[in-house]
Amino acid sequence: MLNQIKTTGTHIQYYMVCHRKLWLFAHQIQCEQESDLVQYGKFIHETSYSEEKKDFDLDSIKLDWLDTKNKIIHEVKKSNKMENSHIQQLKYYLYFFKINNIGEYYGELDYPKLKKKLKISLKPEDIKEIEDYITKINQIINLQEPPKIPEKMKICKNCSYYELCWI
Questions:
Q1: Quick one: CATH architecture of 9-166?
Q2: Backbone dihedral angles phi then psi of residue 76, each to the nearest 5 degrees
Q3: Least C-beta-crowded within 10 Å: which of 10, 49, 60, 115?
Q4: pLDDT beneath 70, residues of the chain
């Protein structure tokens, strides 16, 4: 029997990027606090849009920036290299707001370093996809050991879990 976890945006993002990273993170094996790239991302988040309200926590999700007046959930990222995972993370937040009757919001991915913004909306077909992600995330997390990675991926070289996977 699967143990249901409260899904977070990080779970969604890691599911999209690497199932092993998702499993390690979900089992409290966290290497990110040591990562220079993660520290740089936090710096971008803290120094960009400083006039806006940030870090809105709601149940299991933590939003970078919530604009309640204009009904926008912002997610601030340093790079668009993993843009699909960022989009899915933001769609999860929109889904969370919808199923919890918080309101109809849309999302905005903010890449301050690139001076780029991307508007994201939740479409009806996204709901089933997100629910499938949640099911699969729980299946991965409930594995007895982390999933194997058949070969190095492009993203592995900058991953904070690199040593646990390849050394």
A1: Alpha-Beta Complex (3.90)
A2: -100, 125
A3: 115
A4: 1-4, 32-55
